[in-house]
Amino acid sequence: MVRIRGLHKSFDGHVVLERVSLDLQPGELLSVIGPSGCGKSTLLRCLNLLEVPDGGHIRIAGHAIDRSGVRWSRQDERLAHRLRAHVGMVFQGFNLFAHRTVLENVILAPMVARRTPRREAADAAMALLDKVGLAAVAHRYPATLSGGQQQRAAIARALAMAPSVMLYDEPTSALDPELAEEVLGVMRQLDEEGMTQIVVTHEMRFARAASDRIVFMDGGRIVEDAPPDQLFTAPADPRTRQFLRNVL
Ligand code: ADP
Ligand code: MG
């Protein structure tokens, strides 16, 4: 579902991602962990071209989002649009449109990008809101919801485009544990339904219990890529051991 080969990204000569390669099978839930500044967000942002990689290859759901041998170009907006339809992204800060109801937040992208008629988009959106437990607040504005509800609305909004992959960048960092649990529960449910998901997270308990695999990054590289039990009980790399000692 996702194939990354030799991904490279620098900011002002400072290397942030160095030869990152990663594969995701359909239905896998991958957690990405690692110290602050190691390149986790940049990796996710490259996967939907919020950042333009300097080099390497990415395929998502069979679509190449680079053009082999051709330099990545910010000009290629059509490519970025096509790609973003396949990749749902959820951020730490919810990023809902404040002046639109929850329902309007969810129907906007299908109506604008897919020209889905409002009625049809609304029916699909209500089904998604029901799935994430928000049917009762569909007509409220984001500010009137808890953080956990807002984040679940953000997930429903991303799902409305029927993405092949869902990406989450620290989706629960701004939430109290109880509200974080609601959001993690939605991700578990999507996993059971076969969604392919990548989550950057500090929730080590969730990463261990829910992930198929965990990637540990440090200094712009993937240091270790292992099933959760192996990574937590027998990390192969001393940097992984050090990191886990500090966070567990
Ligand atoms: P993480 O998510 O693991 O904390 P990031 O991917 O956000 O790490 O950042 C990795 C490094 O890249 C950091 O040193 C950060 O300061 C730098 N960085 C990220 N985005 C930019 C940007 N747009 N411009 C310049 N430097 C950036
Ligand atoms: Mg980050």
From TrEMBL:
It is found in: Cell membrane. GO terms for molecular function: ATP binding. The keyword ATP-binding applies. It holds the Pfam family ABC_tran. Its main location: membrane. It is a peripheral membrane protein. It comes from the Bacteria. The keyword Membrane applies. Keywords: Amino-acid transport, ATP-binding, Cell membrane, Membrane, Nucleotide-binding, Transport. Residues 2-244 form the ABC transporter domain. Belongs to the ABC transporter superfamily. This is Amino acid ABC transporter ATP-binding protein. It comes from Endosaccharibacter trunci.
